[in-house]
Amino acid sequence: MGSRKKADAARGDMMQGTLDMLVLQTLVLGPAHGYTIADSIQKRSDAVLQVEQGSLYPALHRLEDRGWIASFWGTSENNRRARYYRLTPAGRRQLHQESTRWEQIVAAIARVMEPAERS
Amino acid sequence: MSLRRRFRRAAWDRERAAEMETHIAHMADDLRGRGIEPNEAQRQARARFGNTTVVREEIYEMNSIRMFENFLRDARYAVRMLLRAPGFAITAVLTLAVAIAANAAVFSLVDSILLRPLPYPNPEHLAQPVAHVVTPRGSGTQEAIDGAMWEAIARHVTSAEAAVYSSWESGANLATGGQAYHVDQARVSADFFRVLGVAPAVGRSFSTEEDTPGGPNAVVLSHGLWQRAFGGDPAIIGQTVLVRGEGHLVVGIMPEGFRSFVDGDLWTALQASRTGQGGGTNYQALLRLEPGATWSAVSAELSNAYDSLGLPSSPNVSRTWGVVPLQESLTESTRETLYAMWAAVGLVLVIACVNLAGLLIARNRTRAKEIATRIALGSGRRAVVRQLLVECLVLAVAGAVLGVLLGQVVLDGLQGLAGDRYADWQNVALDWRVVALTFLVSFAASVAFGLLPALQATRVDVLQGLREGGSRGASAATGGWTRSALVIAEVALGVVLLVGAGLLTRTFLSLQSLDPGFDLTNIVTANASLEDSRYETAERTMALFDQSLERVRAVPGVESAAISLGLPYERILNLGFRPLDGEAVDGIALQRNFITNMTYVTPGYFETLRMPVRAGRAIDDRDRASGAPAAVVNEAFQKMYYPEAGAMGRRIRISGAEREIVGIVGDVQQGNPGWGDGSGPLRTTPIVYLPAAQTPAATMALVHTWFAPTWIVRTTAPVPGMDRALRDAVAAVDPLLPLAAVRGIDEVRAEASASERFMMVLAGLLAVASMLLAAIGIHGLISSAITERTREIGIRMALGSSAARAIRAATTPGLMLTLAGLVIGVLLARASVTYIESMLYGVESSDPATFAVVAGLLLAVAVIASLMPALRILKLDPAKTLRA
Fold it and tell me: Chain A within 8 Å of B658 (Cβ-Cβ)?
């Protein structure tokens, strides 16, 4: 358990969960391969969120392992053989849960931060 | 994580690598689109992606099976921890191994004899007819039939194929190429092998003609005899060999490994009839259900068959015919013993498990600090429980491996101990079924009994655990009741096993203490089969007896010698007789037949055995064929039939002649005669001794098909080489008459109570094992209680309490638990001895002495096991314990 625990800790549980949610959200629009997913997150966040390739692929693997996304080989817009991911019904439910939780956390953090701004 | 993915990790990895290459290519495509030169775009994309190997490694590890790999890690850790506590590990593994070994060995026997189907095709279609007989004096079953009933069965039973065999196995003489062999023979009808469903490997079975009385003689050989006597030469088929002194055509050889319940070295055709053997109930029938038929139809046909005999019926006696599955009827003699053994080793396993649980609780408590540390460091309770259970599994594997190895030793021991008494045990081996079950039991037992201690150990207050480290502070009550319950259970189960062993020991001792009625020292016996065409006339038989005895008596060291049909300690022939004068039993009129036992003897028999002659004279040289017909009876005979007036001078009709009772001799122990009151392997029973010379040739020929006469030799001192000398003396008279085993009379005696001795030894060993386990359990309980309370005891002693009082306080709980266990155990034992009641003789199943001795013994063990650790208190330095 040791080495994996350390890796998780370094990246932070919160970040990992967040990346999962972002990936699922991206796939709501339709199947995409790894590069498109990373690119799309980056673009939609106005380049604030830089997706580390080193995190993306383990995340995709993990999501697939849990049955939230499924993969298949296809041909990309550049005529390259690429592995595509699509959202599964379970993934859709998961996304709904996570975004609800996310909204709660954001609201909670906001409430905590507000008085600090006022004072 | 699927198992499939773990083992396809390499292929999976290649796919991931390809996927990431595509990613880099897409990135490079983008860069090129912004006008960057292709090579440079490629380089930048690769740099931006970073190290693909790291990502692949991470995914690779995600593909490993967590549980599996955790288990391996836990197992490695468990082995390390166990190696660090070798005392605990060895005790635990040995406890498991001993219990598992006993169970593996006994289960091998139970499995192959009782559970596994018989080695014949469709064994569930095989059965034997059985009559349930209910009389006012009791009920019973009878499987033996006579020739008339067999003929009726053959006529009336159409729903099953039927075959018949003689239930008597006896020795026979086989002569071939100048060599004489004493072989075991069995007699079966022509259809016997076909009904069983096994054909001879070479040649054929008996023809109908060969199976008809007076038909040609034929013999089927076993594979073993074929190899031994004929060198495995198939050309023996069609040749003639001498069996019982007559030429027999060898028609077939049974396959290797063929076993039946009338096993012999050879089979001859039964030639069933209503006369000779068939005149009495000496046959048994074998049935194979016809396709589509039902057993109830067969039962009805059997009833019809019996009714067709037109036998007089009594309104008091009801007889119902049915069938009993073949396996059930074949295992009749051994089943009870096996189930009793199975129950006993099962109890030992339970005790071992209870002990293991106790050991684990004690061990986990000494590890409280370690466990608390691990939980404090963030290891979940579940992970710690898992770790503790994995330790149990490691113990289970070690215990099972050692147990199976030991089991082989135990099985060998059981087979050696069982000897000829349970001949069908000899072919049993520990096979994979037993090994698989053993591992399963070991795993289940150690997990089931490891779970409770593990749950208990992890229910800790972390802070408390860390601070105290399990060695200081007042006694912790947690876990106390479980261990107490375990000790009570151990003691209670120990009582059950010990009482069983005690009663079986008393049974054996009571058999041993029976007065033999003769002098056992320096007597050697040997028998030879006279079921031989060369000994059909009385003259030839008597010539053999006289000449061989003359030669035996000439051997240096021989004091006297004689021949008889039966020996003390063996079962002898049942024969009817009719009193001709005097008062008969119960005032019943004369001229009625009574049953008694008969053996013929040569002059010198009573002198050789040194049996006391109570009245009249022994059988001597006067009792020639030409002399007045005489008989000698024993005291039991007189007591049963002439209790008032005495038997001397009475005239009885027995064995085809009117005879005068000329002498009364003392009683000797005989094997169960199969009739009369009471059971038990040995008893004194009424016997009529006839002079061999006055026994009619027809009687001799008939009884020699069942019993082999015995040469009995008394020497002045043990004579080395008596075996050889005896064989030579008989061979000098008839070189083609092989003697069977030469045995001392003490061996004959030991065989008579072999099963009782077997049960005694077995139950005794198991009881000792259970007592040891209980002692370990009590010792552990008191020992760890004292360890935990060292500080408390130290304080008390510093405050002026005496060591004696401290010791008393420390040992009392163990003794109270033992008492509780004793009470429960005695109740359990009273309830469970009924299962071995039928194996007990000469002792009541509720024998107070046995119960008292068992209770006293266990109490003594408990006192010792409690005192041993409690005496450590004497060495306590109060000052040190307070500072510790």
Answer: no
For the purposes of burial, counting CB atoms within 10 Å of the CB of A112, is it exposed (0-12), middle (13-18) or buried (19 or more)?
A: exposed
Cβ pairs bridging A and B (under 8 Å): 65
At residue B704, the 3 state secondary structure works out as: coil
Residue type at position A34: G
Q: Do A61 and B16 touch (CB under 8 A)?
A: yes
Contact B58 A82 (CB under 8 A): no
Alpha helices in B706-744 (DSSP H): 722-733
How many Å apart are CA B454 and CA B367, to the nearest integer? 11
CA B36 to chain centre: 89
ipTM of the prediction greater than 0.95, yes or no: no
Q: What is the reported pLDDT for B569?
A: 92
Pairing type for strands B246-253 and B218-221 reads parallel
Task: Please report the DSSP string for B634-658 in residue order.
Answer: EHHHHHHH-TTT-STT-EEEETTEE
B1: chain A residues, CB-CB within 8 Å: 65
Inter-helix orientation angle B295-308/B147-156, to 10°: 130
CB-CB neighbors (< 8 A) of B62 in chain A = 58, 61-62, 65
Q: How far apart are CA B445 and CA B431, in angstroms?
A: 21
Task: Write down the pLDDT at residue A12.
Answer: 38
Tell me how many degrees the CA angle B108-B114-B117 measures, rounded to the nearest 5: 100
Any CB–CB contact under 8 A between B26 and chain A?
yes
Chain A closest-CA separation from residue B50 CA (Å): 7
**pLDDT tens string B657-689:** 899 999 999 999 998 776 666 667 888 889 999
B205-238 burial, b if ≥16 CB within 10 A, otherwise e? bbeeebbeeeeebbbbbbbebbeebbeeeeebbe
Record: contact A34-B16, CB cut-off 8 A: no
Cβ-defined contact of A53 to B16 (cutoff 8 Å):
no
- Measured between CB atoms, does A76 come within 8 Å of chain B? yes
Does this model's pTM top 0.90? My answer is no
Spatial separation of the C-alpha atoms in residues B622 and B82, rounded to whole Å:
82
Is the CB of residue A55 less than 8 Å from the CB of residue A2? no
Over residues B109-151, the pLDDT tens digits come to 888 888 888 888 999 999 999 998 887 777 788 888 999 999 9
